[in-house]
Fold this sequence. Notes:
alpha/beta
Amino acid sequence: MSVSSAEKTMVASKIYDSPVAAFEGVLFDGMMIMSGGFGLTGNPESLIPVTHEAGTRDLTAISNNCGADGFGLWMLLDTRQIAKMISSYVGDNKLFEQLYLSGELALELNPQGTLAERIRAGGAGIPAFYTKTGVGTVAAEGKPVDTFEGEDYVRETWLRADLSIVEPPVLGKPLGAVPGKHRRCAKIPLRRNINC
């Protein structure tokens, strides 16, 4: 997938001198933030601290996971700035586990492919879609299930955010193209999926 000229213009028109300048007037309590990265790779490490320092609270964070001790979105978990996580993986993040089990953190756990498709759907303006993934499991609890050609499918809804944060590109390279292609696949839908 190549980056279109419209996307290049969009990115070029939103270049700031610093992460602090980029977030000026953008952050607010209760906002929904999508964060790029896959596992501990490709996290927007220059942007997460700005959110932390701003003291923005009651955040809903959409990301594959929530970092690890001292790394990634963990920083916002540690200060209780994230109220809800929408993710696919808890992993070895003991703080994430502790906050969820104690009731301090709301969690919407999604299969990884469903999470990616919900993000893509939000960016494409598709409010809902059907998938077989999760049918008959806790992932489908409370969600509509419909039958198509004799097979059950669960209806999932799009994910949209007030702000999407991704690792900046390497100069002269398309967003996320260096060093791993896996990051590029996740980042383009994140960039398309903001409400501003």
